[in-house]
Design goal:
The structure holds three protein chains of three kinds. By secondary structure, chain B is an alpha+beta fold. Chain B has helices at about 5-25, 25-35, 40-50, 65-80, 80-90, 95-100, 105-115, 230-265, 280-305, 315-340, 340-345, 350-355, 365-380; strands at about 120-125, 140-145, 145-160, 165-170, 180-185, 195, 210-220, 225, 270, 275. The longest helix of chain B is centred in the middle third of the chain and has 37 residues, at about 230-265. Chain C has two domains: about 10-185, 3-Layer(aba) Sandwich (Rossmann fold), CATH 3.40.50.620; about 210-330, TPP-binding domain (Rossmann fold). In chain C, helix 3 crosses helix 4 and helix 5 (about 230-240) packs parallel to helix 9 (about 320-335). Chain C is elongated. Chain C starts with 9 loop residues before the first strand and ends with a helix. The chains are: A alpha/beta, B alpha+beta, C alpha/beta. Bound molecules: flavin-adenine dinucleotide (FAD) (3 copies).
């Protein structure tokens, strides 16, 4: 089975004080550490797992600049066979549909049975890419997979619907599946893996290579644009208890008592 | 000149960071510290992933990387946790002597199991009466047919009791002083080798520290490591490499204590302000950050030079002098910034402080480093 | 541009079912759509399913038009088949704006549909307004795990535009007492895609504790760091006489069973008191907490979004605060 995984590099904001740049259009990411989007690590692992069981190839794609190559090298070090970075000045300012358009063009160029993406990204978190990609490729699709199994040319996918309910569906291939966290246990990158890929030159493909009309991608093709980033209004929200652990514990006990928690 | 890490180096740094983040935790460290237990599970996983001995050649289980890349891993591990990191860093202590001085056969026998976390190493130089001064050893090895017979006592031996193999510095020619010393490989389960723990200690409690008592321990003549009569020199050559690793250990511990202090300074409020807003704290932070940067520069430079084949005992000693010193200072200031919390075990920095201190003592005290530096600067004075 | 401008626009809402009834979001979409449509606009609903006549009538008590796709192939939600079935409707009706809910089902359906319908998509909106004198839509959504808000602008295509709305973010419109809207039965073409076939539904695993019934929940998140550390929240829950619940990463790592997960892909709970320990407060998690309990957050990051929804917060290390709290509770209880 030939599998393509679409991955993205994002900053880790879990425990960071996020500040917004003066332009209002970017966060100040100078002190943040970057890495592969959490959901994508599960997608890569799932691709490698399916490849190990059923053979084939795993190709990792990202649309991004030179710095973003890092996540492709990580995918290679985890065990992916090929990685390609999709980059072109014309891609600047792309909206999610344009990113999907670029990826679809790259995927169409090669044989593929399955495309995996993370269900959502930790930065912009719009959860759109997989569905858009499937529609552009004319392939089948399912979102939020928590299990996949391949047999008799069909892919069985368990995915999340609502309220803790999950559903198993059978998909004809080719198909696009977006992957949820917890579907597997992503492996650590090994030094052995890094060494194997240290000298690999990761090819870059641009609009020309992909046969893309530059008017359809980048800022030119974007119908969606960011006008402003801002911090959520404060003021509303929790009353913050001050003091050392014992002090706050004491105050909490009082509040809990008032509210019938004790 | 370029101060940027290469892509592969950044990947290694990140891989080490991710592994440490996923596997190390302060609760585990506290539990292992209380039990004085080596982190065997983490060690095995680290071996599988190639974090141990990445600076050995591929033929011997390594990844063909250099001291520099090894230093990056040690730094990241110790940054995440000073105790687990230190245990990981010293699990192959002295294996580099096999790498630099051993025969091909010895390297093939000893090194791959170390890299794959099947074998732990110990280096036994220090004796009760010979610490900084190892120019004469009381432990002897005498040829008896095709065997060596060892007698004597080694003390303060890291991994004593859990190591599978020890590199033992012995006097093989009692008349010849330091020119009469040789290194003999002794398996941990050798008959006549008795190992006892030296007792409670300030830090690095995840590594046992043992006293090795040799009573007519017989090992094959082929267990000689390097050249007969060259043992002393082999230790010094090893230190040119291992002191850089200790500098990286200290650097990581310093960075880890610093990270925790910064997080606290940004959140803790007193007198209606974040304590980081007081100039007294700001100046502390500025000094700490500057020292860290200097320690990193000198450690990286020493490692890089070593990998270029420019072995420089003076630079290695400078790194081993400076990084440990600032690690102790920064961990101390970190405790101070955390105030009463810093003094409590739960907040880790007191453990970082206790773990930092050993880096000023083992593999040559800071005074011995100064002797080495001064000797290199001044030359032989008459 | 479509024939409809944002002034008095025609809006199409793709509504979701929940069990045998309608999902709450069906009325939230209506509330949002009415506000945007104003007096002169119109608001329609598209409903897919099998034997959903009753539900269509219910919708017609609030929506102006209800287009019903009644077919066995729609018995269970299938984002792909729904997208294929609805594309012709959108082409025919030419709504200026299509709305759906940003639920798991919405995530499965909306992106692919927006491409098929040829409209740009504004996902996961917390608010949605007409902008640029009616030539564009403006939405606010959360990014970076809820730590930052983003104002997005979207220029419709010839075919209009689409947005998905976060569940609970828009006030629901109450259905009227009478059926006032028109119900249209739609033909279902053959091309709804047989590429994806339902096999079975997997119910949440049964468990001996039912967190949906607990009055006091101590919910633990990724901040707990390690399985072994769960002990401290377990004994806090015990001291409070409550149950332990958790966020998704804790389940993903296999530390607690799925039956303890609160959130949009877990269970919906209605306790009196909810302690969120080491939980950042993603909308998928908070979305599972209903009935406005007394919400206490313990988190070391003062900027964690959970503090935005909590009643009382403690900015601190859970490894300190939780044991201290347990001790004080045991003391208070004598
Ligand atoms: C936890 C731990 C682990 C260790 N692990 C190992 C190990 O694995 N293998 C091993 O072989 N050893 C190990 N050691 C021993 C360590 O290397 C020695 O403790 C160290 O070399 C100092 O020797 P000493 O303790 O005998 O101190 P001494 O040599 O007695 O020194 C005492 C003091 O005198 C100073 N001093 C000595 N000579 C001079 C001089 N010429 N000029 C100025 N000052 C001087 C020293 O700097 C020091 O401050 C370990 C020690 C500890 C505590
Ligand atoms: C083992 C132990 C025993 C103790 N015993 C007692 C006891 O018996 N009785 C008792 O009452 N307390 C006791 N304490 C508490 C102790 O007095 C406090 O820890 C100490 O006063 C510091 O307060 P803090 O820990 O809250 O640190 P903080 O006040 O938060 O200080 C943190 C850091 O910020 C710095 N800082 C704070 N304000 C300023 C400022 N304005 N300008 C510059 N720097 C500033 C501090 O110097 C420190 O470096 C004990 C603490 C410990 C660890
Ligand atoms: C379609 C979909 C469905 C989803 N469904 C659900 C769902 O049903 N339920 C759910 O929970 N999530 C769900 N998620 C995941 C959700 O997006 C978040 O990733 C998740 O809720 C984060 O869990 P968390 O808050 O435990 O972890 P994090 O976001 O990583 O937050 C951990 C928090 O712990 C704090 N912390 C760390 N250490 C300490 C300490 N020592 N003391 C105090 N605080 C500390 C940190 O500051 C941080 O705020 C879903 C995601 C998707 C895409």
């Amino acid at each position: 089975m030939d599998i393509v995984v679409c991955i993205k590099r994002v900053p880790d904001v879990a425990e960071a004080d996020v500040e917004i740049e003066r332009s209002g259009l970017r966060i100040d990411d100078s002190d943040l550490s970057w890495g592969m989007n959490e959901w994508d690590t599960f997608a890569v692992e799932e691709a490698l797992r399916l490849e190990a069981e059923h053979g084939g190839t795993v190709t990792a794609l990202t649309v991004g600049g030179e710095d973003d190559e890092e996540v492709l090298r990580r995918a290679l070090a985890m065990g992916a066979d090929t990685a390609i970075r999709l980059a072109d000045d014309a891609f600047e300012g792309s909206d999610p549909l344009a990113v999907a358009t670029v990826l679809a063009a790259a995927i169409r160029k090669r044989p593929y049975d399955l495309v995996l993406t993370g269900a959502v990204s930790g930065d912009t978190g719009s959860a759109q890419l997989g569905g858009m990609l499937a529609a552009l490729l004319g392939a089948g699709q399912v979102a939020l997979a928590t299990r996949t199994a391949f047999a008799n040319g069909k892919l069985e996918v368990q995915h999340e619907v609502e309220g803790g309910l999950e559903r198993v569906v059978e998909l004809d291939l080719p198909a696009v599946v977006t992957v949820q966290t917890g579907i597997n246990e992503p492996r650590y990158v090994s030094i052995r893996g890094i060494r194997k890929v240290a000298s690999v030159e990761i090819p870059v493909e641009g609009a020309g290579d992909l046969g893309l009309d530059v008017a359809a991608v980048g800022a030119a093709g974007a119908r969606e644009a960011l006008s402003e980033l801002f911090l959520p209004p404060t003021g509303e929200g929790a009353e913050i208890l001050e003091g050392g652990p014992d002090e706050v514990a004491e105050k909490l006990v009082e509040r809990l008592r008032e509210r019938g928690g004790i | 000149m370029d101060f940027e890490l290469s892509k592969a180096q950044k990947d290694i740094q990140k891989a080490a960071r991710d592994f440490a983040k996923g596997e190390f935790s302060k609760e585990l460290a506290a539990e292992l510290e209380a039990k004085h237990e080596f982190p065997f599970d983490i060690w095995r996983k680290a071996g599988e992933l190639g974090f141990i001995g990445l600076h050995y050649p591929e033929a011997y289980g390594g990844q063909d990387y250099g001291s520099f890349e090894n230093a990056l891993v040690v730094e990241e591990f110790c940054r995440r946790d000073s105790s687990i990191g230190s245990a990981m860093m010293s699990c192959d202590f002295s294996a580099e002597i096999v790498l630099r001085c051993g025969t091909d056969e010895q390297k093939k026998f000893y090194l791959p199991p170390v890299a794959y976390a099947e074998s732990i190493f110990g280096g036994a130089f220090t004796e009760p009466d010979h610490g900084s001064d190892i120019t004469h050893m009381a432990t002897t090895a005498v040829k008896d047919g095709d065997h060596w017979v060892l007698n004597g006592v080694k003390t303060f031996i890291t991994n004593g009791g859990i190591a599978h193999h020890y590199v033992v510095l012995c006097q093989t020619d009692d008349e010849a002083g330091y020119k009469g010393q040789s290194m003999i490989m002794v398996p941990g389960d050798a008959e006549g080798l008795e190992i006892t723990d030296v007792g409670a200690k300030m830090g690095i409690r995840l590594n046992p520290t043992g006293e090795l008592s040799f009573k007519n321990v017989r090992v094959p003549a082929s267990n000689l490591l390097g050249k007969e009569g060259r043992g002393f020199y082999q230790v010094l050559e090893f230190f040119d490499e291992s002191r850089i690793e200790v500098a990286a250990q200290a650097l990581g511990i310093a960075q880890g204590a610093f990270d925790r202090a910064i997080a606290h300074a940004k959140t803790r409020e007193q007198f209606g302000k974040k304590i980081g807003a007081f100039q007294a704290t700001q100046h502390k932070v500025a000094d700490m950050a500057t020292k860290l940067e200097l320690a990193r520069l000198i450690t990286y430079k020493a490692a890089w030079n070593y990998d270029q084949g420019r072995v420089d005992p003076k630079l290695a000693s400078m790194a081993k002098l400076y990084a440990p010193r600032i690690a102790v200072e920064i961990a101390d200031e970190a405790i101070q910034i955390l105030g009463g919390w810093g003094y409590m075990t739960e907040f880790e920095v007191e453990r970082f402080y206790r773990d930092a201190k050993i880096t000023e003592i083992y593999e040559g005290t800071k005074e011995i480093q100064k002797n080495t530096i001064a000797a290199a600067v001044l030359g032989k004075l008459r | 541009m479509s024939t409809n401008t944002n002034q008095n626009p025609k809006i199409l809402c793709v509504v979701e079912r929940a069990g045998a009834g309608l999902d709450d979001t069906a009325w939230e979409l209506l509330g949002a759509a009415r506000a945007l449509a104003g007096e002169g606009g119109s608001v329609g609903a598209a409903l897919l399913g099998e034997g959903v006549g009753e539900l269509a009538n219910e919708l017609a008590r609030g929506y102006d038009d209800v287009w019903v796709f009644d077919d066995a192939r729609f018995a269970s939600w299938d984002g792909e088949a729904y997208a294929r079935a609805l594309a012709p409707l959108a082409q025919r009706e030419q709504p200026a704006l299509i709305l759906a809910a940003h639920t798991n089902l919405g995530i499965d359906f909306a992106p692919g549909f927006s491409v098929r319908a040829g409209v740009p998509l504004l996902p996961d909106c917390l608010s949605l307004e007409s902008a640029g004198d009616g030539s564009a839509w403006e939405a606010v959504r959360t990014v970076y795990g809820g730590k930052v808000h983003a104002r997005m602008t979207c220029t419709p295509s010839e075919q209009g535009a689409m947005a998905t709305l976060r569940a609970g973010a828009f006030a629901a419109a109450e259905p009227g007492a009478e059926v006032t809207g028109r119900v249209h039965a739609e033909d279902v073409g053959d091309d709804v895609g047989q590429g994806r076939r339902p096999v079975r539904t997997v119910e949440p695993e049964a468990s001996e504790v039912d967190i949906t019934q607990a009055a006091v929940l101590v919910a633990v998140g990724r901040g707990i760091e390690d399985e072994e550390n769960l002990e401290i929240v377990q004994s806090l829950a015990e001291a409070l006489g409550g149950e332990v619940a958790c966020s998704r990463p804790v389940v993903d790592k296999g530390w607690l069973p799925k039956s303890r997960q609160v959130g949009t892909s877990g269970l919906t709970v209605k306790p009196k008191v909810y302690l969120a320990v080491g939980i950042s407060g993603s909308f998928q998690h908070v979305g599972g907490i209903k009935g406005s309990p007394f919400l206490v957050a313990i988190n070391k990051d003062a900027r964690a979004p959970i503090f935005g929804v909590a009643d009382v917060g403690v900015v601190g290390d859970l490894f300190d605060v939780v044991p201290a709290l347990e001790a004080k509770i045991r003391e208070a209880k004598g």
